[in-house]
Amino acid sequence: MTDGLPMPRRLRAIVAISLGSALTMIDGAIATVALPTIAADLGTSPAAAVLVVTVYQLTLVTTLLPLSALGDRIGLRRLYQGGQLLFAAATLLCFFARSLPFLLVVRVAQALGAAAALSVSSALVRSIYPARMLGRGLGINTVVIASAGALAPTLGGFVLSVAPWPWIFASTLPFALMSLAIGRALPDPEPHDEPYDLAGALLSACTFGLTVAGLEALVHGDSPVVATAIIVAGLVAGVVFVRRELGDPRPILPVDLLARPVFALSVAGALTAFLASMTFLLSLPFRLKHGWQFTPGQTGAAMMFWPATSMVVAPLSGALSDRYPAGLLGAIGMVMAVGGLLALAFLPAEAGVIDVGWRMSLTGAGFGMFLSPNARLILGSTPRERTASAGGLISTTRLLGQTLGATLAAALLATGLGASRTPALVAAGLAALAGLASAARLRPAVRLPAMEEVADAQPEGAVR
């Protein structure tokens, strides 16, 4: 098996995967700023308009794992390009939406296309880069995802200032078309002639879909009993799903990989890290507004320090993870993040943009230091033929952590604690747990067995 793509094909493949990652992240967040306009234009309530964002996120978290298993069977590039094509077609239909039900249907189609691409993007990154550069490649991909998420609200606001709201969806179409045009540079498909586990896919969708929908209903709905029943149904489906997957040699949920301590610790660390960041970031604007009377412009300026710093640190830490243990880099990153979050929890009484900004930079640097090496260790501890499954789990973990973080932030706001220092303290505690999970991977008994099983993923002489 070749070690990565040759140049210059590798560069074209990097551009293709970067464009695809960017458009899926932008489209997931860009609609947020347009919700009031959409509600007014379509004659619906603000609460109903929120479904434009919710159905997209719910479809993503529900379908990522089943689609990653499909990618293993039909070929990664084939699924990635098919997802891009579906996304582009649905995006074009969004432009012609004149009712909320129609818009929601095409948003589901958009999310399915995005999920198909995201579910195999990490696996494609592993095939694009040589093993000695895997951390660097994941760092670049992390920067693209973070930058796209940070850019989305700004891009949405700009589009709305000069054009009607359908154009915010059309603005992502060029990314999809460019990615499709150069997508042939991606690694050639290597399909596996195995039957697809449709029952397992349905159980996976029910597990994540019902659980997340129930949690959302518990926070935002009017019937705690119904919401709790939905959560219980999701958990029951999860138990059946996991028990069924234990007997499958190529499971949709990689339960066999999760049995490896290094893999399980990496996934648990990623989940708590994303949960921490989203809990804090969604509550911060309310605290700055009510506690320090920040204007929207001041809040945006202060919050930009986080992604701006992460964009610099993530590729650096990814490159370092090709030479140094990811557990060490992740532990250092979470120490920095905990320090930044505690500093943000105890802001001075007369805090300004710079006071908040340097603390956000420290926190963003910590998360940037953690995430790329963590993703590298997950992929590096996975057999190459199972990379799509591991990559799908990475994307699912990120989305699940962000969704649960949004739910936790909403719960804190509903109880009156969201505008206090409580979210920062909660996030600091979660970040500390992620740091402990990262440090635990330094134990030889945890990391060596996995390293020996996947020696092909590690360049000769590299330090792990």
From TrEMBL:
Superkingdom classification of source: Bacteria
Record keywords, A-Z: Membrane, Transmembrane, Transmembrane helix, Transport
Membrane topology: Multi-pass membrane protein
TM region positions: 47-67, 79-98, 104-125, 137-159, 165-186, 198-219, 225-242, 262-284, 304-321, 328-348, 360-379
Alphabetical list of InterPro entries matching this protein: MFS, MFS_dom, MFS_trans_sf
Main location: membrane
Ranges for domain Major facilitator superfamily (MFS) profile: 13-447
GO molecular function, one term: transmembrane transporter activity
Any matching Pfam family: MFS_1
Location in the cell: Membrane
Keyword Transport listed: yes
GO cellular component: membrane
Protein name: MFS transporter, DHA2 family, multidrug resistance protein
